[in-house]
Specification:
Blueprint (H helix, E strand, L loop, with lengths): L1 H22 L9 E6 H7 E5 L6 E5 L8 E7 L2 E8 L2 E10 L4 E7 L2 E9 L5 E8 L2 E2 L6
Parallel strand pairs: 1-4
Antiparallel strand pairs: 2-3, 4-5, 5-6, 6-7, 7-8, 8-9, 9-10
């Protein structure tokens, strides 16, 4: 019976230790935010920070001083801008629409153009399409 009691105590201690070690770690997930406002409000809420010359800038939340992750929609200066950021860098689809109806759609990865950039006129007709690979214009004509 003494062996069983010692075994149960050791098992209890091991489980307790595992819970403490693995159960108390902070969760590593990205919180999704959505920000909507005017261009003026955007300029007051965020700032851009360049890490190194030649690198893309980061969008920093002015209040808590951390890179922004989430969707931004801002209206002003004759256009509407919808963009997605991950750790302060453009990441995903970006759409800029003029009040007249023309628009530019582009895809970003880690702050750089990466994928198609399409330019549409005010009637929605595709006028130009370019492809970027990691920030560089792909001139080979193939995807």
């Amino acid at each position: 019976m003494k062996c069983m009691s010692t075994f149960l105590k050791e098992k209890f201690l091991l489980i307790s230790l595992l819970l403490v070690v693995f159960g108390c770690e902070p969760e590593m997930h990205v919180q999704q935010n959505e920000w909507n406002g005017t261009e003026f409000e955007f300029e007051k809420t965020f700032q851009r920070s360049n890490l190194n010359l030649g690198e893309s800038s980061q969008l920093i939340d002015s209040e808590n001083r951390i890179p922004f992750t989430g969707r931004v929609k801002r209206i002003g200066d004759g256009k509407t801008v919808e963009q997605v950021y991950l750790d302060g860098r453009l990441n995903g689809n970006s759409i800029i629409k003029s009040d007249g109806g023309a628009r530019v759609e582009a895809t970003y990865s880690n702050g750089e153009l990466d994928g198609s950039m399409r330019i549409y006129d005010s009637d929605g007709v595709l006028r130009s399409e370019m492809r970027y690979d990691s920030g560089k214009l792909n001139t080979s004509g193939s995807d």
